[in-house]
Amino acid sequence: MTATLVKEASPPAPSHPDRARRRRLRRRGRIVAVLFVLPALLLLGALVVYPVLFSVGRSLFDASGTRFVGGENYTEMFRDPATLKAVRNTAIWVVIAPTLLTGLGLILAVLVEKVRWATAFKLLLFMPMAVSFLAAGIIFRLAYDDDPDKGVLNAAAVTVHDAFKGSSSYPTARAREAVGGGGGGAGPGLTKEADGAYTTGADLSPGTVTALGLVGVAPKDLPDDAAPAHPAATRQEAGADEVRGVVYLDFTPGGGGEPGVVDRQESGLPGMTVEAVRDGRTVASTTTAADGSFRFTGLDGGSYAVKLPAANFAPPYDGISWLGPTLVTPAIIGSYLWIWTGFAMVLIGAGLSALPRDALEAARMDGANEWQIFRRITVPLLAPVLTVVFVTLVINVMKVFDLVYIIAPGPVQEDATVLATQMWLVSFGGGNDQGMGSALGVLLLLLVVPAMVFNVRRFRRSQR
């Protein structure tokens, strides 16, 4: 009787209709989930999976796509000098750009915390992210222009150079060959030396007056303070220890005049350096006045030569060839840094704001300075964030195309090419070899996938 009571008190077993209902609900939930995911899966298959599989298959055929060549495209790819240069340039990008960006982002994120207008500063640095790569490429193509009147960087370089070194006022000037000067006395002809200087024969003694005529300078290019040379040439008389003379433009506006003679309408050349040379050594130096006159005093007896140094005729400094074969890749990397520094700073700044402040304050109380705190506490704690930023930038750098294609001029396009631009050039930019282009695309995919897998694993570990 007791067993009967216990049996009657136990809860009833679940009925079969409830179990079947739960199965139907789970099945319906799976169907609904699949229906929601299906559009994304279709897009993923159409835009990612199919192009990848098609590219892998296309890389096994020749340029026309009709003959199967197996791995021949991959073999030829690593024998092509242009492809090897693209691989080298891509390696330079991968090593330099993410490293500089991560370092700059870290430094700026730390410094911004100490700036009063931190939000405005962050906004200012992040604004280039709103500019398309096409527009950024055009901006920097103009900024890097070789002409200082167009390129802002070369304009700044020329300004700084001329502020410290100055520039020649007569880059186009040249001497008439074997023509003597007149006016205040017969002058010797000027001979051009190997370094571009002009010199007279070593037959001028103290008490001599000479006239040195130059041509090749347009009257409109003369300095504003230039005065006629004829009065100075006719009035000069040299003392016993002096050599005097005048440097003038041996050209009469409107025609006429006698070559080698200082005519009345001919202008002096002011600001030109003149040297007195004896036995190959410069013993005196001066600068011509507004009328082109010069004077050496205190000279010992003997014979001298008058020299116009090459600096008088040096071409003007035109700046740096930013887009030449040597600097084109660093120049493009510089434009990339301008765009992405704000991105790195914002991400690292977000990680910095999440750091435990008690650890930093404890270090300060223990006597650590800011550099020690930065090196031993801030950087180690930010290591996961720095790694994510670095790997993300590595992935982005491997795919860079727009900046390289737009900024690099045609003659140096091959010197700046990376894998993405090389893939486009081989496939569509004149090569018309889509088999080789597909092989380059597969190579680029194989290089990007490990970095993507590493990043995904980092995200999963951080979520746990």
Description:
By secondary structure, this protein is of the alpha+beta class. It folds into 2 domains: 80-157 and 322-432, MetI-like fold (Orthogonal Bundle), CATH 1.10.3720.10; 174-313, Sandwich (Immunoglobulin-like), CATH 2.60.40. It has 15 helices and 9 strands. It has helices spanning 2-9, 16-58, 72-77, 81-112, 118-126, 133-143, 152-164, 230-235, 328-353, 357-365, 370-398, 402-407, 413-416, 419-427, 434-463, and strands at residues 174-175, 191-192, 198-199, 208-215, 243-249, 273-278, 281-287, 293-296, 305-308. α4 packs parallel to α9, α10 packs antiparallel against α11 (370-398) and α11 packs antiparallel against α15 (434-463). The longest helix has 43 residues, at 16-58. The protein starts with a helix and ends with a helix. Residues 1-7 and 179-187 have low confidence and may be disordered.
